[in-house]
Specification:
By secondary structure, the chain is mostly helical. It is elongated and about 60 Å long. The chain starts with a helix and ends with a helix. Helix 1 runs antiparallel to helix 2, helix 5 packs parallel to helix 7 and helix 6 runs antiparallel to helix 7. Helices cover 86% and strands 0% of the residues. The chain is built from seven helices and no strands.
Length: 153
């Protein structure tokens, strides 16, 4: 069976059990405990997936460097700049203020905003038609990814 279908079915089951157990004020005992444990497992699974995609997204430009370089007609210097400095500077400098905000604010909203920015920026990377657009999109990816790790701790 397809692993994606199994994942979606398991997620749907966790959400269904948790929703029904936690919304009933009279549910108690093992059923309510099981629902809470399912919600914790689901949150952990989502955080694991976000971090996994975060890691893959940091590496994807290096993995696909040759096809990207050919399609956008980039030279080695431009490709090197895309893989290093703009992304790394934003990612590292914004991670500390985002972690500070996460300690004082809502981690849920910080991660939601970060994943939204990161996803939109990743989509923009796929639509880039030249070096300048890809550079700005990668900087936006660094901005979004900076909020994807620190608030999870």
């Amino acid at each position: 069976m397809n692993p994606l279908i199994l994942f979606l079915a398991g997620t749907a089951f966790f959400v269904w059990v948790s929703w029904h157990a936690l919304r009933k004020p009279r549910s108690h005992g093992f059923y309510r405990f099981f629902a809470w444990e399912c919600m914790l497992a689901l949150v952990l699974l989502i955080l694991m997936l976000v971090y996994t995609f975060n890691f893959i997204d940091r590496q994807i430009l290096a993995i696909l460097a040759i096809p990207i370089q050919k399609e956008l007609k980039l030279d080695d210097q431009e490709m090197g700049l895309l893989q290093g400095l703009p992304f790394a500077v934003l990612y590292t400098t914004l991670a500390i203020p985002v972690a500070w905000l996460a300690d004082r604010g809502s981690r849920t909203w910080i991660m939601t905003t970060a994943v939204t920015v990161w996803s939109a920026a990743t989509a923009l990377c796929g639509q880039a038609a030249g070096y300048g657009q890809l550079l700005v999109a990668r900087m936006a990816v660094g901005f979004g990814e900076a909020g994807g790790v620190a608030p999870a701790y």
